[in-house]
Amino acid sequence: MITGKRYYGEEEEEASEEARWFRELVEEGSSLIGASNLRDFLPVLRWVDYQGVNKRLVTVQKGREEFMQRLIDEHRSKSREEGVEKKTMMGVLLSLQKTDPEYYTDEMIKSLGVGLLAAGTDTSSDTVEWAMSLLLNNPQTLKKAREEIDAHVGNGRLLEEVDISNLPYLQCVITETLRMYPAAPLLLPHESSQECSVGGFHIPRGMMLLVNAYAVHRDPKVWEEPTKFMPERFEGGKGGGGKLMIPFGMGRRRCPGEGLAMRVVGLALGALIQCFEWKRIGKEKADMTEGSGLTLPKAVPLEAMYRPCQSMLDTLKKL
């Protein structure tokens, strides 16, 4: 989407090396941003990088900028050689740079690219992995989702973005996954702009504030059987019965990538269900232990067995 490049699959060695670098930047960045830092709890250490976290964050940020600058230079060079700019985010921004270079600077393009890469990669992939784990542990739900896709899309073509709105049960599966395993369980840190009082608690100016979306989504006083995977709780436009769902935050600071994320996850998960038959690797259910970080990865990566659906073989061969 950003540059029209794919890093996974049967690719050249150069692309594989670039993919490895990209994964390292994403994983290190997510780990550091979600790490517990003594400076957050002891203001006296604000000017002392006691744990070396700040130094590592600076290194990761430099790596991200270098990575994006390489993509910009490569895209710019290919556009000159081929004379045609691909309809990618990078191509559009570079074409706009020609008409308004003072606004569409390389720094601005890099910032947009880094924002998408940092916030829209492991969050979406983690959600798909959690969803597949839940579906494998609940085969009847997986069967119901596949039947819906077969009925509305068929096997003569791949599921497309326009189909997602016609797949309400698939959307329920994704919503229930985000309820149980929000991509950012504590959302993003905010800071009080002025002194205030909330729920009887005194909040000083400049205080870091975190919203525990994970706890909100699993509150037994609000949700019926909160630890049970039940996409049906969102069926029929019930929306959880008016209960608070905040996997993307809320208000003016709500995640701007929500629409894109729901489409990407819907397409990825829908295609996996449509094209393949899935089974667990053994009798035991998939491990649902949670990892740590700013996002919520699985502590034990999902392993599963799959094979192409017989009804989709002809369609898959045409790809």
From TrEMBL:
| Gene Ontology cellular-component terms listed | membrane
Q: Which domain of life is it from?
A: Eukaryota
Q: Which UniProt keywords apply?
A: Heme, Iron, Membrane, Metal-binding, Monooxygenase, Oxidoreductase, Transmembrane, Transmembrane helix
Compartments reported by the entry = Membrane
The protein's matches in Pfam families, at most eight in alphabetical order, are given as: p450
Report the cofactors.
heme
One annotated GO molecular function: heme binding
Q: Which family does it belong to?
A: Belongs to the cytochrome P450 family.
Q: What is this protein called?
A: Cytochrome P450 81E8-like
- Encoding gene, per UniProt annotation: LOC105033510
